[in-house]
Amino acid sequence: MYERTAGKGGAAFSQSPTPLTEVMDISNEEIARRKAWLQFTDKDITHVTSVTGFAERIQDEVIEQLYDHFMEFEEARAFFKDPKVLERVKAQQKQYFIRLTQGNYDQNYVEERLQIGAVHGRIGLDTKWYLGAYNFHLQAVARRLFKEFEGDTEKALEVLLSLLKLKFFDIGLALDTIFAQRENTIRQQQDAIRELSTPVLQVRDRLLILPIIGMIDTHRARQLTEQLLRAIRDTRAKVIVMDITGVPAVDSRVANHLIQTVEASRLMGASVIVTGLSSDVAQTLVTLGVDLSKLNTVVDLQGGLEEAERILGIKVTQAGQTVSHIGAE
């Protein structure tokens, strides 16, 4: 079984005792809603379970034809270059399709289908192969169904339509799992990029620099605050120079969040100096009526470092050598 991971990159679900139905919030009520949306009723269950023996008889032939079709494509041949892997996947595919006609389409059935979708996501199976397999299988079964019920086309059609509903039920579950994995992986990668794009740098004892480049949204501002407060705690910093020269625009929500960051840093015993506030950003904040009285702002990074050294009581000669600590204010 699998669960969403909190790590950076990699698979979106890792092995865990937590069922995927719980991870993806697919309750019995949700399963019932999905069946109702597809109009999959007890009558349909009767139809598909009535052809279990038929499904078992035809699967070997259908699966062989399916993979003969797949192997016409170079990328499939590359994927299945190991004959043992190919035979194992064929056997699993056969059981997968036979399970369609065995009834009990409950939460255990849904869990099985979600786990299969998770496997497809982890190995990077292209959805065109997944959907292509369903398309091929449905056509192959339809031809054989009408031959099986020759003379009773209405019965064949009833079974086919019921089977079609169940297949769409399965497809929805598998695609939900694959998409959830990909979305989670993208989120993890974005978090990693954000963390790398806002490094907290220690330039000397008790002094940190936080250079911010690019757009700041609410999520990134919150993450930035968390990183900074962790760094203050870990380094016992007293002064932080927050340089926003590379920030093209700041709205009122982000500005207020930066002010909250300054206040949170102050509560942890550190002063924040904001540098690189562009004229455009400054005018925007004034127009928006943002309270900037709690911000200690300096024109540029050099000025911010000088102010930080003054606060720390560090006297620097013209040659750039530290002479002494004269007592922090």
In short:
With 329 residues, the protein is an alpha/beta fold.
Walk me through what this model shows.
The chain has two domains: 2-195, Orthogonal Bundle (Globin-like); 198-325, Transcription Regulator spoIIAA. The protein contains 13 helices and nine strands. The protein is α/β, with parallel strands linked by helices. A five-stranded mixed β-sheet has the order 3-4-5-6-7, sandwiched between helices. It has a two-stranded antiparallel ribbon with strand order 1-2. The chain has a two-stranded antiparallel sheet with strand order 8-9. Helix 7 (107-122) crosses helix 9. It has helices spanning 20-23, 28-37, 42-49, 52-70, 74-79, 83-98, 107-122, 127-148, 153-197, 218-235, 252-267, 279-288, 301-312; strands at 2-4, 13-15, 201-204, 207-213, 239-246, 271-275, 296-298, 314-316, 322-325. The chain starts with a strand and ends with a strand.
Tell me the distance between the termini: 57 Å
Q: Count every beta strand, where a strand is a DSSP E run of 2 or more residues.
A: 9
CATH superfamily of the largest domain: Globins
Looking at the structure, the CATH topology of the largest domain is Globin-like
Output the CATH class name of the largest domain.
Mainly Alpha
Q: How big a fraction of the residues is strand?
A: 5-15%
What's the order of the H and E elements? EEHHHHHHHHHEEHEHEHEHEE
If you average the pLDDT, what whole number results?
83
Q: How many helices in DSSP terms?
A: 13
Strands across the major sheet, in which order?
Answer: 3-4-5-6-7
- Number of structural units classed as domains: 2
The largest sheet is: 5 strands, mixed
User: Any guess at the CATH architecture of the largest domain?
Assistant: Orthogonal Bundle
